[in-house]
């Protein structure tokens, strides 16, 4: 990758639009991992504006507490915990805390994730384990933590934030798509297993989303704006997705508006994944 030249204008994130306000998730108790930034932070905003009761977490303790405090100041019910999703006990602690606070768990959103892109034969064992520990095991641990409570209630919704890498392979991205394919399999298997018990399990597969991670990537090039434009031109709408668009899809799946959507995956990539490619 070329580093930005001294004269290049670095990119920054655009202003975050205010999520629509309403009552679509009023009083629903929601657990969310990976809430400190990006898509996870947008989900906090969207769910808070729809009056959910949130218990949010991230391994970045100060940042996730700052997100929670921001929404508490606006009257939302948001509590934050420091959680490492690779540690099963942390997810069980989070689930217990939600039940202590609110007496139930209506929704789990597994959003915590990490990009691990390596050459297969040069990848270390540590890289492999880290990718699966966060991107797949972490989601499974979250499901294990909430399922007993959801089974007791007879109702619940689990939403896994997957990726277009869950169904498509892009060279140079190993082993990330392996873990994300596994996450899609987990979604489908649990959705079928627990459908008779009133629990829905679905996934959202975002494509290229304008997060700080991608801003930092573009800023690593000599001409960040040109690199950003190259990404936009890959997509039929000539733009990429915004975190709030992923978040509002999660609102829909978490709400009572989607009772017959189960073991499904909603792709958000502007249609790029269905285009013909040479």
- Give the C-level CATH assignment: Alpha Beta
CATH architecture: 3-Layer(aba) Sandwich
Share of helical residues = 40-55%
Ends: how far apart? Answer: 24 Å
Rg calc: 19 Å
The parts where pLDDT drops under 50 for at least 5 residues are none
Provide a descriptive summary of the structure in words.
- By secondary structure, this protein is α/β, with parallel strands linked by helices.
- The protein has one domain: 3-Layer(aba) Sandwich (Rossmann fold), CATH 3.40.50.
- The protein has helices at 38-49, 61-72, 88-102, 125-153, 176-194, 212-218, 224-233, 243-254, and strands at residues 29-32, 53-58, 77-82, 107-110, 156-161, 199-206, 265-268.
- Strands 3-2-1-4-5-6-7 form a 7-stranded parallel sheet, sandwiched between helices.
- Strand 4, helix 4 and strand 5 form a beta-alpha-beta unit.
- Helix 1 runs parallel beside helix 2, helix 1 (38-49) crosses helix 8 and helix 3 (88-102) packs parallel to helix 4 (125-153).
- The longest helix has 29 residues, at 125-153.
- The chain starts with 28 loop residues before the first strand and ends in a 10-residue tail after the last strand.
- The mean pLDDT is 94.
């Amino acid at each position: 990758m070329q580093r930005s030249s001294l004269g290049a204008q670095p990119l920054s994130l655009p202003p975050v639009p205010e999520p629509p306000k309403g009552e679509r998730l009023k009083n629903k108790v929601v657990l969310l991992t990976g809430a400190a930034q990006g898509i996870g932070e947008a989900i906090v905003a969207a769910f808070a504006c729809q009056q959910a009761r949130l218990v949010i977490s991230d391994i970045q303790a100060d940042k996730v507490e700052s997100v929670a405090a921001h929404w508490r100041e606006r009257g939302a019910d948001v509590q934050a915990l420091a959680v490492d999703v690779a540690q099963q006990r942390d997810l069980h602690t989070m689930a217990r805390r939600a039940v202590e606070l609110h007496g139930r768990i209506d929704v789990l959103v597994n959003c915590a994730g990490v990009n691990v892109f390596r050459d297969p034969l040069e990848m270390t064992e540590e890289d492999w384990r880290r990718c699966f520990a966060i991107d797949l095991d972490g989601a499974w641990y979250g499901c294990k933590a909430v399922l007993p409570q959801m089974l007791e209630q007879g109702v619940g919704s689990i939403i896994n934030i997957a990726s277009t890498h869950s169904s498509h392979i892009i060279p140079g991205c190993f082993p990330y798509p392996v873990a994300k394919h596994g996450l899609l399999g987990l979604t489908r298997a649990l959705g079928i297993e627990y459908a008779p018990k009133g629990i829905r399990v679905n996934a959202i597969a975002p494509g290229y989303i304008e997060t700080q991670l991608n801003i930092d990537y573009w800023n690593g090039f000599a001409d960040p704006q040109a690199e950003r434009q190259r990404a936009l031109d890959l997509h039929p709408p000539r733009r990429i997705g915004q975190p709030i668009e992923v978040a509002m899809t999660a609102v829909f799946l978490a709400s009572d508006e989607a009772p017959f959507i189960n073991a499904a995956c909603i792709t958000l990539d502007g249609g790029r994944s269905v285009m013909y490619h040479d």
